[in-house]
What we know:
The chain is mostly helical. The protein has one domain (3-25, 45-118). The chain is 69% helix and 0% strand. It has 4 helices and no strands. Helix 1 runs antiparallel to helix 2 and helix 3 (74-95) packs antiparallel against helix 4 (101-118). The longest helix is centred in the first third of the chain and has 24 residues, at 3-26. The radius of gyration is 16 Å and the shape is globular. The mean pLDDT is 80.
Amino acid sequence: MNSLDRYMEYLAAAVFLCVGLARIMSYNRRPKPLGAQSAGLPFGLPYEALVAVGVFQIVAALALVTPLSFMPAITPWAAAGLVLVTLYGALYHMRRHETAVPNLTLFLLVMFVVVGRWM
């Protein structure tokens, strides 16, 4: 593994840490005093499922930045799990006729990490 692979792992970890935290916190907002509505949940997904995905993204992001000597076998599996999460997210958005470009971009980023780890 060269230094570019490690930087990409840090970048992927930072992105998924932010995405996971935003996923957990953004859907449970309280209405503002001026009558603004709380953010709605995506079609067909309960709040608990979104929290579970957000927690998984945070845990996987933290697993990406663990030292190689601490748990060397968990990092590639965390990256592979993030690949699946991004693919399922892209499929979900495409099924709803929304743009899947952010999910596919994250998919390519995580695939770079997976190839760097397993090859």
